[in-house]
Amino acid sequence: MEHDARPDLDHACRTHDAPMGGIRTDGGAIARRQLTERGLSDGEIRALIRGGRLSLLRRGWYQTPGADPEVVAALRAGGVLSCVSALGRHGIWVPPGYTDSHIRASEHGRRVSGPRFCSPYGDLPAPVRAVDPILPALACAARCLPGDEFVAVCDSVLNTRPHWELADLEPTVAGAPARVRSLLDRVDGRADSGTESLTRVRLRAKRVKLRIQVTIPDVGRVDVLIGRSLIVECDSRRHHLGDGYQRDRDRDRAARLRGYHPIRLTWADVMYRWDVVEKEILALMRRGLHRTTTLDDF
Ligand SMILES: [Zn+2]
Known about the structure:
Blueprint: E1 9-10, E2 23-24, E3 29-31, H1 32-37, H2 42-50, E4 55-58, E5 61-63, H3 69-76, E6 79-81, H4 83-89, E7 103-105, H5 134-144, H6 147-160, H7 166-169, H8 178-181, H9 194-205, E8 210-216, E9 220-226, E10 230-234, H10 243-257, E11 261-265, H11 267-272, H12 274-286
Parallel strand pairs: 1-2, 10-11
Antiparallel strand pairs: 3-5, 4-5, 6-7, 8-9, 9-10
Bound molecules: zinc ion.
């Protein structure tokens, strides 16, 4: 780097997959090590501080003006933003209700009282970025989330990163008990919403035989097909407004014409009323609605 070159400190970057145009920060925070690895000398770092473009946040970590307060708070607390807090920033689906920051302690980080630190299974490398990459964040989530939600998050990782395979996620649970490691057997990157993932995992836990993403003539791809004929469609939070509302009704009628029984779950049904919904689905199955004849006879 030329002595007077001004590095591009871009804190608009929300994910680590963004191209490395200049020096990328995570929410406006960056480790000293990242700066030196990009070729900045001590003098250049001091010049950035004098120019007001960087300030020392804690030993080994800097922030840019306007840095994300949640990222800064995690670093000040002695860790980095991780787990569900980091996964959401990487565009991964995370369940609702995790409003507190999830923080992974740095090796030499000073732990202050207040925030709760995640406790991933096994030993992870010390954090090197202010927002943990997906794999260490997932390792924290394996401990913090109930099993069904962890599977749904893993589904979303594979769904949003099509070049990743299930084996890529294995290190995240390597140090976990067998009960947690076996959750990976239930991961399916075809699921295209968190609600669909949770529905699949919870029904299978009740030994319901189902398939996902089944294509039915005149209807299209349905989220979940139980047995031969009971369709469960799961709305995501953003889904099914505007045009989708009419399209969904058209699909439901087309499915009935072919002999199926479609039911539709809202986001709130899956998140907050699952006990009721599950009882209803099991009641429909006792009445044999998953075994009726259809034009397709799967
Ligand atoms: Zn956590």
